[in-house]
Design brief:
There is one protein chain. The protein has 301 residues and is of the alpha+beta class. Among the domains are: 43-129, T-fold; 173-289, ApbE-like domains (T-fold), CATH 3.10.520. Helices cover 31% and strands 24% of the residues. The strands form 4 sheets. The chain has a 7-stranded antiparallel beta sheet. The protein has a 3-stranded antiparallel beta sheet with strand order 2-4-3, with helices on one face. The chain has a two-stranded antiparallel sheet with strand order 7-8. α1 runs antiparallel to α6 (142-156). The radius of gyration is 20 Å and the shape is globular. The protein starts with a strand and ends in a 12-residue tail after the last strand.
């Protein structure tokens, strides 16, 4: 999935630990095979290769994931959109002499993006990208989906405590080996070795979207590698958005959406959702917290 996964389980024997870890690894590999953009026989590749031509029949698991992606796109008014792939191809974020594409090129590319052009047929369990050249990617939600699936399998198999770290996005349940709660640290975007805040993480997931790992400065302004699906332009103004909810998939998708929305609109959006919390750090290193975030505490230094 282009992400490093770390799995940890708390159990009474090495033999059981190894079994649970194998279950987790096999599940991540199974989902990668279905979702990867880099495997020609994955559902993602098949859907993309037939864009504008014909629908692709998918299994129930992937169809339900696509439905949930559409729901997040709808409630976020397009701030989350799995069709931004063609826009990302316009940019070379690793190029030191970065240039923003011209407006004409961006407008032309925007014509082959947009979640409204993902047509789902529940009756046939099929997906059709209405415009030739369209592409979908699960990069903004796939690792959260995988983490939820691993947690579900573990719990069905009787595991009472563990966590999944998907490239910094954490999902945890139960307690640590010493009986204490799992906790998640929110890092300083300018120095990831420094933890600014902690939050308990029992049966919760935290996903963070930000520019602290990948950004560039253009004409004195700091831009993220994440794009606004509506404008096709890189995001700026927010260094870090962390969303906490009972679902890794939901946290993953909402962290991207809130980053696109911005502080004021993003926080108002989160405050309307049950059991969902948010922490934003803007470009001036100001901290913003959603209204219902009651579990947050600062670690004594």
């Amino acid at each position: 999935m282009g992400s490093a996964f770390e799995l940890l389980v708390v159990t009474e024997s090495d033999e059981k630990a190894q079994r649970y870890l194998r279950i987790g690894i096999e599940e991540i590999r199974r989902l990668e095979y279905k979702l990867s953009e880099y495997q020609t026989d994955s559902y993602t590749s098949k859907i993309n290769s037939r864009a504008g031509k014909e629908p692709v029949f998918v299994d129930r698991e992937i169809f339900k994931l696509l439905e949930r992606c559409q729901q997040i796109s709808s409630i976020s008014e397009g701030a989350f959109d799995i069709t931004v792939g063609p826009l990302k191809k316009l940019y070379n974020f690793k190029n030191s002499s970065f240039e923003i594409p011209d407006k004409k090129t961006i407008r032309k590319t925007l014509r082959i993006t947009g979640y409204h052009s993902i047509l789902l047929s529940k009756k046939e369990s099929s997906v059709f990208l209405a415009k030739e050249g369209m592409r979908i990617s699960f990069a903004a939600i796939g690792k959260g989906f995988a983490a939820d699936c691993v947690k579900k399998l573990w719990m069905e198999e009787g595991l009472e405590s563990g966590y999944i770290n998907a490239s910094g996005d954490l999902t945890a349940f139960g307690n640590k080996a010493d009986g204490s709660q799992w906790k998640m640290g929110i890092a300083n975007p300018d120095n990831t070795e420094e933890i600014l805040f902690y939050t308990p993480l029992s049966h919760l997931s935290v996903a963070t979207s930000g520019d602290y790992e990948q950004y560039f400065v253009h004409n004195g302004k700091r831009y993220s590698h994440n794009l606004n699906p509506k404008t096709g332009l890189p995001l700026y103004g927010i260094k870090s958005t962390s969303v906490i909810s009972p679902s890794a998939e939901l946290s993953d998708g909402l962290a991207t959406a809130v980053s696109v929305m911005g502080v004021q609109k993003g926080m108002a959006f989160i405050d309307q959702l049950p059991d969902t919390h948010c922490i934003i750090i803007n470009e001036e290193n100001q901290h913003f917290f959603s209204r219902n975030l009651e579990l947050l505490y600062e670690e004594p230094r």
